[in-house]
Specification:
It contains 9 helices and 5 strands, in the order ααααααββββαααβ. By secondary structure, the protein is mainly alpha-helical. Strand 3 and strand 4 (about 190-195) form a beta hairpin.
């Protein structure tokens, strides 16, 4: 089936806007007029990406930054029409379409994901509901309940410390464990945690009927610590800290 002439014109129009260096100006359109569209659309996309990924922007020179954004704008076929999804589309581009350039830092995709999480939590529709939650419950004998706007994450790179002046060339031996969360004032914060606390959170989220003490006992069996009481106290302290930050909301009974 042949493409109608008006669609051919639309394709030529948008192709030129996305990648003017490789797509000719459409017939019978003045370049002065097309320049308005070229600059307006590109600047809108660039502004959203710069706002969503401020650390990444500081890592690149101005020339390389615009080269990166222009490549995204020219090549990526977005699946969502919403501006708030541009950041997710940008990550998809980095993961699946970006041809690595010498100026790209190691850990770029992880850093982009970390920066995206902040926006995602800011705009998340999830709300904190304390119904049927005991905010003073016993974290050891009852089941800890996690906030729906608290996301435990693990990265190979120390993404929360990366910036123009701190760019590791390779991932360190120890992964970085974080909980990124939205507090009651709707501010997004992060908490760096150790591997044992990360395992504790993972066990509680994977086993919905685990009490805090069950998860700590599970860890005790895994590491076979010579002093189980020390592990129990350390686990309780970790749970209490998570509750202080609002990452754990409270408990519920079995």
């Amino acid at each position: 089936m042949s493409i109608p002439a008006f669609k051919k014109h639309q394709y030529a129009f948008t192709a030129h806007i996305r990648d003017p260096e490789n797509n000719a100006l459409p017939d019978n359109i003045e370049d002065r007029r097309m320049k308005i569209y070229r600059e307006l659309l590109y600047n809108n996309i660039e502004n959203f990406i710069a706002t969503g990924f401020p650390v990444i922007k500081t890592i690149y020179s101005d020339e390389n930054w615009h080269k990166l954004v222009r490549d995204f704008f020219a090549r990526h076929q977005s699946q969502s029409p919403y501006f708030l999804e541009i950041s997710r589309e940008f990550i998809d581009y980095l993961q699946n379409e970006r041809v690595a350039e010498p100026e790209d830092p190691a850990g770029l995709i992880e850093l982009a994901h970390y920066e995206w999480v902040e926006l995602a939590l800011h705009v998340s529709d999830e709300t904190i509901n304390l119904e049927n939650i005991d905010t003073n419950g016993d974290l050891l004998t009852q089941i800890p309940v996690f906030s729906p706007v608290a996301w435990p994450l693990v990265y190979q790179f120390p993404v929360h410390k990366m910036g123009a002046d701190n760019l590791p060339q390779q991932a360190p031996e120890q992964p970085t464990y974080l909980v990124v969360y939205r507090n009651r004032q709707d501010d997004v914060r992060f908490l760096e945690i150790n591997p044992v606390t990360a395992r504790l959170i993972g066990l509680l989220q994977e086993n919905k009927d685990y009490r805090g003490g069950d998860a700590i006992d599970h860890i005790n069996r895994e590491i076979n610590h010579t002093d189980p009481e020390t592990v129990k106290q350390g686990g309780l302290t970790a749970l209490q800290e998570l509750q202080q930050y609002g990452i754990i909301l409270g408990t519920r009974q079995l």
